[in-house]
Amino acid sequence: MQAPSTTVVSFVRHAHSPYVPNAERSRGLSTRGRRDAAAVTAHLAAVADVVVTSPFERARATVEGIADAADVPLVVDEDLRERELAGEHVEDFDSAVEHLWGNPAASHPGGESHAEAQERGVAAVERLVEAYPGRHVVVGTHGTLMALVFNAYDPRYGYEFWNTLSMPDVYEATFFGGELAGIVRTWVPPDETAAGAGSD
Predict the structure, then answer these.
(1) d(Cα 16, Cα 135) in Å, to the nearest integer?
(2) Which InterPro entries does UniProt cross-reference here (predicted)?
(3) 117 and 144 in contact (C-beta within 8 Å)?
(4) Which residues have CB under 8 Å from 102's CB, separation 6+?
(5) Contact (CB, 8 A) for 33 and 161
(6) Contact predicate 93/144, CB 8 Å
(7) Per-residue pLDDT reduced to its tens digit, 99-142
(8) How confident is the model at residue 191 (pLDDT cuts 50, 70, 90)?
(9) Position 198 pLDDT exceeds 70
(10) Short-list 101, 108, 196, 197, CA closest to 155
């Protein structure tokens, strides 16, 4: 009988990206974001067996250097994209987000509910765990989607957790036999006071 395999998934919340209204897919990294992305590359290149990323430019730009440095595949997965907050720019971002955390089935006009985003995010992660048994997978994604995935396994990962995330941030999840065994943060920002909390 084959022993259950252990798959490690390092979730990378993208580095700093200047907000541009209605440019969720295309906005890239700031100067600080590019500097921090290089630090993320140094942090994970030695362990990565494959890099899988959201199609959004800020997520891809944060992790593509890892794939290059480790000489491993870079795979784009649409289901790792950020939760779509609304169809148009939202003026009061903080209250709009807090409302969704408190009401997972709710959505803003043209947007996606947290329940919907969580379902596709968890499905994407489960596919990766099944596809890469015994490997270390680096996932380039977003603050809200990452928090929602963790929340599906452990409700302690909620609004307060999301609001403390830095930009970038790295959390390592270990799956044993396909089941989550634990989550630990492996990233210490160069300057915690410059953390980009409170933004997608």
Answers:
(1) 28
(2) His_Pase_superF_clade-1, His_PPase_superfam, PGM_Phosphatase
(3) yes
(4) 159
(5) no
(6) no
(7) 999 999 999 888 899 999 999 999 999 999 999 999 999 999 99
(8) low
(9) no
(10) 101
What is the chain's Cα-based Rg?
A: 16
Contact 136, 47 (CB under 8 A): yes
Q: Is the peptide bond before 18 cis (omega within 30 degrees of 0)?
A: no
In degrees, rounded to 5, the angle at the alpha carbon of residue 103 between the alpha carbons of residues 102 and 104 is: 110
Long-range contacts of residues 115-121, Cβ cutoff 8 Å, at least 24 apart: 117/83, 117/84, 117/144, 117/145, 117/148, 118/148, 118/149, 118/151, 118/152, 120/79, 121/79, 121/80, 121/145, 121/146, 121/148, 121/149, 121/152
Query: Encoding tokens for residue 70?
Result: 């480790």
- The sign one gets for the Cα dihedral 65, 35, 118, 87 is negative
d(CA 135, CA 165): 26
Domains of the chain: 11-194 (3.40.50.1240)
User: Tokens 């290149």 sit at which residue?
Assistant: 45
Both structure tokens of 50: 């494959």
